[in-house]
Amino acid sequence: MSTPDNAPEGLTEARMRFIYTLRSRGVTDARVLSAMERIDRRDFVTGIFSDRAYEDMPLPIACGQTISQPSVVALMTEALQVGPRDKVLEVGTGSGYQAAILSQLARRVYTVERHRPLAREAQKLFDKLGLTNITCMISDGSYGLPDLTPFDRIIVTAAAEDPPGPLLAQLRVGGIMVVPVGQSDTVQTLIRVVRTETGYDYEELRAVRFVPLVEGLGH
Ligand code: SAH
Description:
Blueprint: H1 13-24, H2 30-38, E1 59-60, E2 66-67, H3 70-80, E3 87-91, H4 97-103, E4 108-113, H5 116-129, E5 134-138, E6 151-156, H6 165-169, E7 171-181, E8 188-195, E9 200-208
Parallel strand pairs: 3-4, 3-6, 4-5, 6-7
Antiparallel strand pairs: 1-2, 7-8, 8-9
The structure holds S-adenosyl-L-homocysteine.
């Protein structure tokens, strides 16, 4: 496929359409759009679905999990309001795509995954792409990473019935957490939590659908 004359350098027509779709779905933050221009979703989708990497839909990855829909990745990243000095925790590495987007906006990204093969593949990909500010860890992310607390931002990319208590506790005052909340087999609500001096403010953002946050380690 040829690159049109007015395309940002190296961006194929398919990737330009991808960015256009994100804009048409309401993504306006220039920093988020530019991060999504720089990170190629195709690197994160392997096998028979790689041809569909630029479509705005979730796709299957290994271990029965999914890479999230790009417009949802973009809107969650926007809602997180990540700054260049932020230390971010992501729960649910999956393919590593969301972490890679965050790596473009934050100082440091810690991402945790309960399935060892997914974590290994994601870390390999981060190394290959030179995304040196991401660290991938294998653990049950519902407990966060107590040794690295507090976090400026926390993003959970699997649905919990309630925002996990340990994660709320690991958010710094003034910090923001974005988490899908609800039963796993129904439509869930994306929640933004802001930690204040005295407690937590909750705001409902939109309906989403994620795989469940599962306890313990996977295979
Ligand atoms: N952010 C991912 C999408 C992940 S799908 C991406 O960009 O591709 C959700 C992921 O959360 C799955 O890989 C699943 O294994 C993981 N997960 C579910 N419960 C978890 C838990 N308690 N701790 C860590 N990871 C968990």
